[in-house]
Amino acid sequence: MTSKKQKSYKWKLWSIILLLPVTITVYVLLIVSWQELRKIPAVQEWATSIQKSTTKIDVPGEYIPIYKDAADEYGIPWTLLAAHHRIETKFSTMDPLLSPVGAEGHMQFMPCTFVGWSHPSCGGLGLGEIPEEDKINPAVIAQYGGYGIDANGDGYADPFDLEDAIYSAANYLAASGAADGEIEKAIFNYNRSNKYVEDVLHFYHLYEKQLATLQTATVQDGL
């Protein structure tokens, strides 16, 4: 029995050794053939359509019109807002929308940045001791030079309201240089971390590359 098993094992081993060059040759021929086929216009068009159809778009379609409206209002790329939203709260899927250091809402504003650093309680990292009713009061925000915006005209500038938060982020990024094309400077001002800048830039550039696909998806969704 042992001898038969050894012979069977040797036969399998030799079969693998003999078939290996054939397998490699077939693999190489397939690659070369595909490269040649790709030169044919019809095949090239088919491959491009397949690539587009499998491109992953992780920006929620319902948010894109808000990004665009806010971006148009403040003269910045809407893809930058999408990138910040992705990094800050993973498109508002973080629960709760409150960071350990006190950043609030969909776009994670520190209260002093949202209401204004001239508020008498502001200092340090920007948590402040601002009454809750003042945090969302447009008149108080205007008084202290904050970046909070009442985007939907309901009388409140609320970082926990999606439209208000995105418009406020657009306001802040524009004032920080994004409206003048200084994208990296604006991102750094939003969160003074080189790693944060790298992370936001990664998604910003990704969304810029996917812009045509994203716009197509928006039209198809009727947005």
Automatic annotation (TrEMBL):
Name of protein: Lytic transglycosylase domain-containing protein
The organism's place on the tree of life at top rank: Bacteria
Residue ranges of the TM segments: 12-34
Gene3D superfamilies hit by this protein: 1.10.530.10
Keywords: Membrane, Transmembrane, Transmembrane helix
